[in-house]
Structure formats: C-alpha cells, structure tokens
Amino acid sequence: MTEPAVESDTRPWEELLKLARQGDESELSDYLASLPPTDQAFAFAHLDDEDAELIVNTLSVSHAAELLSRLSEAQAAGLVGTLSPQLAAAIVHELPSDEQADVLGELADDQVGAILDQLPEDEATDLREFIAYNDEVAGGLMNRELIRIPLNETIGGVIRIIESALERLTEGDVRYGYVVDDSDRLVGVLPMQNLLFSKRSTAVGDVMIREPMTVHDQTPLDDLIDVFDSYNFLGIPVVDADQKLVGVVLRQSVDYAAGQAAESDYLKSQGIVGGEELRTMPLWLRSRRRLSWLSVNILLNVGAASVVAFFQDTLQSVIALAVFLPIISDMSGCSGNQAVAVSMRELSLGLLRPTEVLRVWIQELGVGLINGAVLGLLVAIAALLYNGNGYLGLVVGTALFANTIVAVSIGGTVPLIVKRFGFDPAIASGPLLTTITDMCGFFLVLGIASQMIDKLTQ
Amino acid sequence: MTEPAVESDTRPWEELLKLARQGDESELSDYLASLPPTDQAFAFAHLDDEDAELIVNTLSVSHAAELLSRLSEAQAAGLVGTLSPQLAAAIVHELPSDEQADVLGELADDQVGAILDQLPEDEATDLREFIAYNDEVAGGLMNRELIRIPLNETIGGVIRIIESALERLTEGDVRYGYVVDDSDRLVGVLPMQNLLFSKRSTAVGDVMIREPMTVHDQTPLDDLIDVFDSYNFLGIPVVDADQKLVGVVLRQSVDYAAGQAAESDYLKSQGIVGGEELRTMPLWLRSRRRLSWLSVNILLNVGAASVVAFFQDTLQSVIALAVFLPIISDMSGCSGNQAVAVSMRELSLGLLRPTEVLRVWIQELGVGLINGAVLGLLVAIAALLYNGNGYLGLVVGTALFANTIVAVSIGGTVPLIVKRFGFDPAIASGPLLTTITDMCGFFLVLGIASQMIDKLTQ
C-alpha cells in the first residue's frame, strides 16, 4: 500500500464544499472527476452528513450516481440514507444494476420502501426481486444489463443490436451476446470475437455456442469462485428455475465479493462484528456493535479467571506465580491464534474439510511440541533469573510447554468444529480459543505449583 | 463458505494415486479434469511429496501445467520444487506468463537457475527479466501474451491476426488488439467490438483509439486498483521506460492480487509471518516461522510482566487482584484490536491517511469512554460479587475504564504510526498494542491498589 498520489496535506473535501456552496454543478463535477476514486472516498470520509448531502444535492443526478459507484458500499448507503426519497430514487435509478442492490441492501427496510415508492412500478418490482437475493449467490451478484439476441437474428442484426446497446450499457466493454428463444430461455452464447469471422447474413443459430455454461440464480459464491477458476470466462449467464435468462455474473463481481469475504473474516476475527465500521458512523452505533462482542468476551474472561480464584491460596504462598500468569495466558493465545489462522486459510482454499479434525490435530501436535519446548525453556530461564528458584522455572516452563500443545490443538481444530456446528469460525474461534487456553494455562501453572508448594516456598 | 460439492468422505487423492501407479495418462488426466479446482487442491493437500511427484510424472506436460494453474501458488511451487529441472522447465514453459513468474517467484534462487538453464536461451532471458519485477507492480502482474498489431495493418489483416492468435493464446477471450509502431511503441488500442463496425479494408490507424491509457511497468498495485476502479477496462497495456509495449495487466490479475494482499494481512495479524503456511510444509519450517514471531512476543510479554513484579508486595497483600489482572489484560487487548482492525480497514480503503493520528484518536476517545464505562462497571460488579469488598471493584473497574480508553487510543493510531515509520502495520500493530496495554493495565490496577491499600486489606 503506497501513499496516495495526492499530497497528504491537501484537503479535497474543503474544495468540494466550497464549490458546492457556490452551487456550480459543472465546476463541482469537474473537480470531483479530477480526483482518483480513493481520494473521492477519502474526501467523503471527512465530511459530516449535512455537508456530504449538500454536495450530492448540488451534483446532477448522473454525476451523483457516478460518485456513489466510487465509494465503498457502506459509505454510499450512508449517503443515500440522508437524501430525500425522491432524490435517492433518481440516483439509484442511474446506478448499474448490481450496485443498486448493494446500496439498497445496506439501508433499513423503511428507507428502501420509501425509495422504491418513488420509482416507476415495473422498475420497483424488478428491483424488489433483485434485492431479495442473498448478497452471496449468483442472483445477488449478477448484472441485469446484457445483450439479449433473438434466436432468429442474423449476424448483421446482432451487430446493429450491439451498436445501439453500446449507448445504453454502463459497462464499456461488451463481452458476449446471449441468444434466447421466444420464452426468454437461454439457447446460446456469442463471444464478440466470433462475430468477426462470420458473414453478416449468417443465422445466429449457426455460429453461437450451444448449450453454454450457465449458473443458477441461487448458486453460492464459493461455487462461482470454483467455476471462474476452472474456466477462463469473463461472465457466465444466470438462469432462474425455469431456465429463463435473468442476468450475467461477471468475473470481476465474483473476485470483488471474494475479496470482501476475506476482509470481513479479518474484521470479524478482531471483534468487529455486525457489519463494517467506518469512523464516520454514529458513535452510539460503533460503541454498541463493539460492545456486543466485548460483553460476551468479558463473561468468558471471568470464567477463566475463576480458575485463578480457585487456587488463590497457592498464589498467596508463591506470589511470583502471579507475574507469570499473564505471560502464560498471552503466549498460549498467540500460539493458538497462529493455528486458527492456518486452519481458516486452509478452509478457505479448500485444502481442508471440516471433518478432518484428527488430521489437523496430528499436524499441529508436532509444531506444539517443538514450539512449546522452546517457549517453555525461555520462560523457565526468565523465572530462574527473576527469583533464583529453579522450581519456579520448572513450574512455569512445564505449564507453558503443555499449554502450547493444548493451544495449537484447540486453535487448529476449533474453526473446523465451530463450522460443523454451523457457526461462523471467523467470529467464534478466537474467543473460544482464548477462554479454553486461559483456563487450561491457569490450571496447569497453579495446579503444578500446588503439588510442589514446599519446593517453591523454600 | 459452503460445503464443497463432492461428499467429504471421498478421498480423491487415493484414486489419483491408483491411476498414477497404473501409469495410464489418459485415465489419470480425465479423472483429474472431472474434479473441481478446489478438489484438485484438496487432493494435493493430502499427498506427500513422493506421491505428488509420481502423479505429475505420469501426467503429460500440458496436463501437468493445467494442474499447477489450479493449485495455490505455494502448492504449485512446492510441487515444481520436487521435480527434475528438465521436467519442471517443460511444465513452466506451458504455463501462462503471469503464472510462470508466480511459481518461480516462490522457489529458491538455485532451483530457479536450474530450471531456467533447461529453457531455450531467449525464453530464459525473457523470464529472468520478468521474475525480476516485484510481485506487486504492473510488470509482475502483467501477461506477456497479447495481440500485437502493426500500425500499417487493415481491419481485414487484424481479423486474420486474431484468428491465428486464438490458437496459441491461453486466454479464451480476446479483449483488445494493441497497435504498435516500428519501434514497438504502443500507438493505439482496438477494442474487439470496434472491429465489428468497420469495413475490412479500413486502415487500423483510422479506427484505433489513439493515446490509450497505459501504465508503467513499475506502477504499484494500489495505483492499479485505483485505475481499474476509475475505468471499466478489462486490461490496460503496460509500457517500459522507453514507452515500448511489454504486456497487458488484466483486471482479474489486479483483483486477485488485491485479495491476496487482504488475506495476507489477516495471516500476518495472527502471527503467520514469513509467508503462507500450508500444513503439508515441512514441520521444522512451520515451527521456525511461527517461533520467529512468538519469540519476539515472549520478550515483549516479559517486559509487561515486569510491571507486575514491581508491585509484587501490593499483590501479596491483596491477592484477589491477581484474579483480575488477566481479565484487564485480555479485555484491553480485545478493545484495542477492534480499533486496530477499523484503522487497517480504513487505511486499505483509502479513507484514512497515516498522518491523521489526531483525528483517529479523537474518534476513538468517544468509543473508549462509553465502552470503558460499561466494561469497567461489569468488572467492578464481578469483583464485588467475588469478595464483597467494594473497594476492589472500584480499583479494577477504574483501571479497566481507563485502560480501555488507552487501548482504543493506541489501537486506532498504532497502525498509522507503524506505517509512517515504514513497517508493516499488519505484523507490528498487534504485538505493540498488547505490550503497551498490558503494561499500562497492570500499572493502573496495581498502582491504584497500592494507593488505597488500607481499604483493600480491611
């Protein structure tokens, strides 16, 4: 990630706001167009709702739609939410079909309803169907704009259809034409380059690729990733249960969704759950979302700490143990999280199935033995240096050795088990792991210590 | 992430191995082709080096190259590393140009040298130049196969060039032709659909898009992401310092690289540094890589624990404090990591510049105040329930309240500061955060406790 092209001391939002206050649409949209997309997103991350609304209100509807395409989904939805339903509807009308669903999908149901009420009846019905698709199936990822070619057309006719379509299509590059029969069922595909090698009088049926690959509108993202990995298509037609052509899912939409899923796993693993957080969101919303995860964690923490409470007398006799408890807890968490990360990665690459708990456990045992021995030795030396009692080193070293093995075993397998029970491993693995390794680590240190309390208190 | 299509109790690697032992190339390659790409990767994740080598040796060179395209880079490189340089060179020769660099880039220098020595002189020279590019610049991401059109050609001639190119191109869809002058400098671009609307006798110079957008071979990934966000191109030509056409960078390559970067950030934040880990890698390599990060962490941990050691007498007098130290440490870490995740996300979206430390700090303060108050209250109640001494609750509650504010302040700003100093925020933010919040948390609990030791020991 390099520095953005524009110097970091420029403040593009100030210029935007100045131009918006002057009310000059063409200067404002020219300046906006001169900013790279990340700078547009950057500028809107620095504007409060009112100022952002003023800018969008000053822009023409089509320029406003272009702007929304450049922003992240959460930013775009936040902006649309502040507009009047009339203006919001006019802008949504201008967006490419896949982005319409993305933006409306982030809004509350009553906001979506108010916007749809402003659109023409048939567009609203279409859009309602489209929003109903899950984000992570072909129907939710597809574009509905495509070049539809009647089966009885000639190549010359197709070229005329493409010529007129080029004007209304938001996508600049035409990839394929889709050939449909009278009932709108897909019967063939025409890659653009095939048109080059045919006479204009040729019937479409003679040069199209018959029985083209299709996906169902409910095909999930993972299967789409697989299909695009296997075949070098730029887009695949989407059909509904009646084999009617409903859209085309593009490689770039699938790649983008896959990237979003990976980033969302990272955020969830760090405790950002319930949706992406932008710091421009309202404070109470940010606090509440973060707290929902933290409050579960504090309960789990109190559970783990109760092990320490149970051994309070041992701790009182050998207070030096208290210095090492946080080290054991933290290091075991680190070792376990490494194993969680490797399992999450192998699961997402398809190298690992949720049933292979035993195999993963065996593969982690070796790492646990080696790393546990090294870390145990290091902490034992630290303990010996700390108070000169070799038995203290023996206790904390043994405990960290054993608990590292526990941590990598739990860490490697917990994402698989969580997934088999139908929960999201990105959210649940971390808290489960640290709770178990904390309880086990405290139990090991204090349990072993209480067995050799005489040696420790000499 | 849904379950794979094949039942999880099938073992595709056993079938592969059986067919390889029978030595029947066509049955083996047919079976392989019948597996979805994730199942191919899954199967090779379950084979040891010898068995994998046997399978690749049985396959024809072109089928082996197809297989490598389906595997992850680390898997593919691992496999190529086990082959004889002759066979490896023959397979690399068959790979698409962007994948050649990906695979060779993961191998050791002497292995790369041995493979290149087996290739024809000019191909080896080409490839050596290509590997020299960094992975994350246009030169490292581009494809070198493209349709090169002399400026003096007619549309009819272009169509003949494309027809013959279609046979050798590994990419199934042709997107653009690139028009070059006598010195191989790019002078124009021909989108395929434009060819449809021109007479065959037209000169290329009359219909091509002049002064097309290009990127330099050293243009970094982030700028490429920006360019593809701004313009709906499927590919952009890459030129060297002399404006000579050297390749074309495809949207899908940039999307893929961006996804890889996001996943790599997740792995690094969890302590998987020094490269992706697959559990099929040698045990000592996996242990060593994980230990390199753990051993830094244990040093940081010992540093934080020394604060506890400093207050050992306070702890001895009020042993109940020891029960709450791990809770304070863990909860502060959780709060801080949430702020780290939000900053990492805002940095990668370009919503935030590394200079905006003050702005982020102010935005985190509000969250810290609210969440600190809630968490502090919860832990205070837990302490009161634990030993009935309200002062203990006051100490740990106040400490967690204050330390939550510290944690979100550090967590939100540390990725920015680390980045400004030129380090990788994904690797360094977590350990720095937990060390500082641990030290500060222990100091707060024990420092406040030592000030009101009389009340606590009543």
UniProtKB/TrEMBL annotation, chains A, B:
SUPFAM superfamilies: CBS-domain pair, MgtE membrane domain-like, MgtE N-terminal domain-like. InterPro entries: CBS_dom (IPR000644), CBS_dom_sf (IPR046342), Mg_transptr_MgtE_intracell_dom (IPR006668), MgtE_N_sf (IPR038076), MgtE_transporter (IPR006669), SLC41_membr_dom (IPR006667), SLC41_membr_dom_sf (IPR036739). Its main location: membrane. It is found in: Cell membrane; Membrane. Residues 142-207, 208-264 form the CBS domain. Keywords: CBS domain, Cell membrane, Magnesium, Membrane, Metal-binding, Transmembrane, Transmembrane helix, Transport. Homodimer. Belongs to the SLC41A transporter family. This is Magnesium transporter MgtE.
